[in-house]
Design brief:
By secondary structure, the chain is an alpha/beta fold. The chain has 2 domains: about 250 residues, no CATH class; about 150 residues, no CATH class. The strands form 4 sheets. Strands 2-5-9-1-10 form a 5-stranded parallel beta sheet. A hairpin with a 6-residue loop joins strand 3 and strand 4.
């Protein structure tokens, strides 16, 4: 059958509502717009337990499910800190010198929040992710500002909001927020054209802009065609909402939760998922502490075994240490360079030097965990007669790093009653699984 005859048959079939082979072949039909299961989740746990790793794992899985390979475009990551503010997160107006010194123009520079919202709006068939690291190290309520209102989403089974020019159903924000700067940024003509003409990765291909408003650099409206046939009409009067293909993931160190306390109104808009403080990576577990690469002398102590040993000491201080579980060491609290890789997985890491162990692990234990009267529960008490006065961190670190203290003696000099646990501290990952 020639192409012209085939086209005529298809046109007649549509006219009389007759099913053709093309209609019956799912592989040739346009895919339906699968509803994205948007999430708002805060992953929390002790330092080094793998929170950021977990977020990456979740995002990679969702991108793979939707056959998305351009991860950089579909994810934006930011870090909250005490100096981070709403203008950094949402965006702000900046002066910009025009070419050839023709004056100054004031432009809106979108923050990570505004930019990921724009991308999600214009690409409704693809998943997008805003990742916030250390969400409790900044004033989250102040940083979100009025965008806090958007965190309420329409749940599955709830009636859709049809009170505006668009129908907002499951996954959309329950309420909209009027923000002229974000609105104009979504309708930016040049941004849209640049994405649609990108030779390597075209985006926003189903978004069609038309007309211009008082700002000649913005379309007066944009219509975005979704795979299910629905059209999102976005004009100068459209309020901003979080779309159903945008998820927000955040991380939070439980040991830092008192930096900025999140109120209950903010917390209830997120799911919380604790990352278990476990170390199931054999290569990381078996890293030897205190063996210099150029020396044959080793303490024999494995990082995973030491971590288990010291965490038991920390947990035993309940009633003495405030929230002792928050002070435990995560499996990746300290890490080193990889030296062997097989099938894209690290099978061996470089040993932890005495210097690094003292300055990272011992420092944390001394200043953040076993302070005041609790130090003598773990560290050796001063003994002037035998010159074992481990009474300050400076002397503690010096004793451990000393070249005179070789092998397991380096640990014996500073840790109390550690000799009896030597066999447990030198177990490999495999041995710990057989005899935990």
């Amino acid at each position: 059958m020639s192409d012209s005859i085939k086209r005529n048959v298809e046109q007649l079939a549509k006219l009389f509502d007759v099913k053709t082979d093309k209609d019956n072949n799912p592989s040739e039909t346009k895919p339906s717009n699968k509803l994205h299961s948007c999430e708002q989740v805060i992953y929390y746990g002790v330092p080094g337990c793998g929170k950021s790793y977990k977020v990456n794992e979740v995002v990679d899985k969702k991108l793979k499910e939707h056959s998305v390979t351009d991860k950089q475009y579909h994810t934006i990551r930011c870090v909250f800190h005490p100096e981070y503010c709403n203008a950094d997160f949402v965006g702000q107006i900046y002066p910009c010198v025009l070419p050839d010194n023709k004056g100054v123009e004031y432009k809106f520079k979108p923050g990570p929040f505004s930019e990921i919202v724009r991308r999600a709006y214009l690409n409704p068939g693809e998943p997008f992710f805003l990742i916030i690291e250390e969400i409790n190290r900044g004033n989250a309520a102040a940083i979100f500002g009025e965008m806090f209102q958007l965190l309420d989403r329409i749940k599955k089974g709830e009636p859709a909001d049809e009170s505006t020019e668009n129908k907002y159903d499951s996954g959309w924000s329950s309420y909209g927020v009027d923000n002229q700067d974000i609105n104009a940024d979504i309708r930016d003509i040049q941004k849209l054209k640049n994405e649609q003409t990108n030779e390597k990765n075209k985006h926003s291909v189903e978004a069609k802009g038309s007309g211009t408003d008082t700002n000649p650099k913005c379309y007066s409206c944009i219509d975005v065609q979704a795979n299910d046939g629905n059209v999102l009409h976005f004009s100068t009067n459209t309020a901003i909402r979080l779309p159903p293909n945008l998820s927000i993931y955040a991380t939070m160190n439980t040991s830092d939760q008192n930096v900025f306390t999140m109120d209950n109104a903010f917390q209830r808009r997120f799911k919380f998922k604790m990352i278990e403080n476990e170390l199931d990576d054999a290569a990381q577990y078996d890293i030897i502490i205190g063996k210099d690469e150029e020396s044959e002398v080793s303490t024999g102590v494995r990082w995973g075994s030491f971590r288990n040993w010291i965490n038991k000491k920390i947990l035993s201080q309940k009633g003495i240490l405030s929230k002792s579980e928050d002070k435990c060491l995560g499996g990746w609290f300290i890490s080193t360079d990889a030296v062997e890789v097989k099938d894209k997985k690290v099978t061996k890491y470089k040993n932890i030097s005495k210097e690094d162990f003292a300055e990272k692990v011992l420092k944390y234990l001394w200043y953040d965990v076993f302070r005041r009267n609790t130090a003598t529960e773990v560290f050796n008490e001063p003994d002037v007669t035998e010159n074992k006065d481990v009474v300050s961190f400076a002397k503690l670190a010096k004793e451990f790093k000393s070249k005179d203290n070789v092998g397991f003696d380096a640990f014996k000099k500073i840790f109390k009653d550690i000799e009896k646990d030597k066999d447990d501290l030198t177990k490999t990952y495999a041995e710990s699984k057989v005899n935990p």
